[in-house]
Amino acid sequence: MNLGWRVATIAELVTLVTDRSASGQTTLVAVDGHSSSGKSTFGRRLVAALPDAALLHTDDLAWHHGVLTWDGLLRDDVLPVVRAGNALDYRPPQWQARSRPGSITLPGSLACLVIEGVGASQPSVRARYDLVCWVETDEPTRLARDVPRVTVAGEISAQGYTDWMAEENAYTTRERPWEHADLLVYGGESIRYDPESEVVLGPSLRRPR
User: For position 3, what pLDDT does the model report?
Assistant: First the structure.
C-alpha cells in the first residue's frame, strides 16, 4: 500500500476518536491488521491516551474457536454488555469446554473500548463500531516479527501458524479491510517518530455513519 504517511500527535489521535463518540454510549474502536503488524502496541497506546478506556484482544475470543469465527461471541455476548455500560465477566464457550481458568473482564461505565485483533473489523461486526483503524506494516517486517513468536516464544506451533496465516490471508484478500477503515495507522519501522507522543497516520478516511 503506497500511502502519504504523516506524523501526528497523540492528542490529534485522541481527537479523532472523541469526534466519533456517541453521547451517552461507550465508544467502540476496532484495530484490525495483519498478524505482527503492531495492532496490540497501537491499541495499548490508544487506551493509555484515552480516559476510562479498556482493551479487548480478539485472540481471547478466538482461543480454540477459530481465527475469524469468534465474531458472534463479540457481537452477541460482549458488545451489548459494554454498550449498556455494564461490567463484563465472560467465559467464552471454549474456555468452559477446555477448563481454561479465568475470564475476560472489563469494568463498567467505560468511555471507550478498543478491540484489537486480526478480523476485528470483519463485516459481521463492522457496523457496531464508531471508528475502525487498520494498522499497515510491510510484509518483510511482519514476517520477521513472526519468527520469534513461533520459534522462540512458542506462542503457536509451526503448523498452527501455517493454518492461521492461510485463514488470515484469505480474509484480507477477500475483504480488503483497509478499504473500510476510517483511519490508517503505520506499524512499520522505517518512518521515524516519537512513540511516546506521536503516531504515523495515513490519509484521513471516513465511513458513512
Answer: 66
Cα–Cα distance between 46 and 102 in angstroms, integer? 25
Query: Is the CB of residue 207 less than 8 Å from the CB of residue 180?
Result: yes
Q: Is the pLDDT of residue 204 over 70?
A: no
C-alpha cell at 123: 463485516
C-alpha cell read off for 15: 481527537
Residues with Cβ < 8 Å from 113, sequence gap 6 or more? Answer: 26, 27, 28, 29, 53, 54, 55, 56, 82, 106
CA 205-122-150 angle, 5° bins: 105
Q: Do 86 and 108 contact (CB within 8 A), yes or no?
A: yes
108-122: per-residue pLDDT in tens? 999 999 999 999 999
Between the two ends of the chain, the Cα-to-Cα distance in Å is 25
Query: From residue 189, how far is each of 47, 112, 182 by CA, in Å?
Result: 21, 28, 22
Q: Which residues pair with 186 in a beta bridge?
A: 136
Contacts for 158 with CB less than 8 Å, ≥ 6 apart: 150
Q: What letter would DSSP give residue 21? A: P
Encode pLDDT of 125-180 as tens digits.
999 999 999 999 999 999 999 888 776 666 778 888 899 899 999 999 999 999 99
Residue that is written with C-alpha cell 521515524 in the block? 192
